[in-house]
Amino acid sequence: MSDHKFDIxxxxxxxxxxxxxxxxxxxxxxxxxxxxxxxxxxxxxxYDILRMKKRLGLTSAEFINQHAVPxxxxxxxxxxxxxxxxxxxxxxxLDGDAGCGVYEDRPTVCRYYPLALLTLRExxxxxxxxxxxxxxxxxxxxxxEDREISIADYRQEQGCDHFDDLNRDWYQLLLKKKSAxxxxxxxxxxxxxxxxxxxxxxxxFARFVQSDNFRAAYDLSADFYREIAEDEVAxxxxxxxxxxxxxxxxxxxxxxxxxxxxxxxxxxxxxEARQAAEREAYVRDREARMRGGDG
Length: 295
Known about the structure:
Blueprint: E1 21-23, H1 46-56, H2 60-67, E2 68-72, E3 79-83, H3 108-112, E4 115-120, E5 129-134, E6 148-150, H4 151-158, H5 160-180, H6 189-199, H7 202-209, H8 212-217, H9 222-230, H10 232-248, H11 259-294
Antiparallel strand pairs: 1-6, 2-3, 4-5
């Protein structure tokens, strides 16, 4: 199964609008049924993980350890997760001839097949548009079925709308980072760790947001903390807001007055010790080079 596209690739496929029609049908009686699941390459979006970990009765950390494989989405090491497969490349959720064992909670990529979502932004525009491309793989006989359907109706039929609504802000984060280029610079390690936590490890992200240190830094109401404790979707949406603030400096989450200064003061001894160690290492390295030159 071809992977989902979160932004437009360098060699652009034909971009289709929601009103475009495709000829496709997949069902248990088709000769290629389950073939795509036996060659799965599925990038997971945050809401995919939320749905699947609840379906499987796992914590987010357990799901990641048992059912996901990490990879880097860009040259800066932005962390991504793919759905784990067996040694032959088959999806672990494949239930023999019966098909997908988590069908009602299957990932976005699986819902879209044989379409790929393209998130496009015209040069100079601040607004991204969603378009689609048709994936035609040799093994798939669904394209030979006698059914014509619009992309809009197909997305509704497969439940794509709901998943896209809850992942859209995350897709926009990826697109903004990609389109911002070197102006943003390489994200620090802490930002990449926060990206992983807020995107994928929602249970530990909840503990992070409920911690005393987080509460001391951000000016958020008791109602907010009650909401995210009871509603994982609300927590997920907040995570995307926090990532925009951490990665791009968009100040949409209020901080307590002097919170930044307090954090800097607490970290000052650590930074001073680190700077002293770096100076000592520089002196030792310089002296070693000088001795080597004398020899």
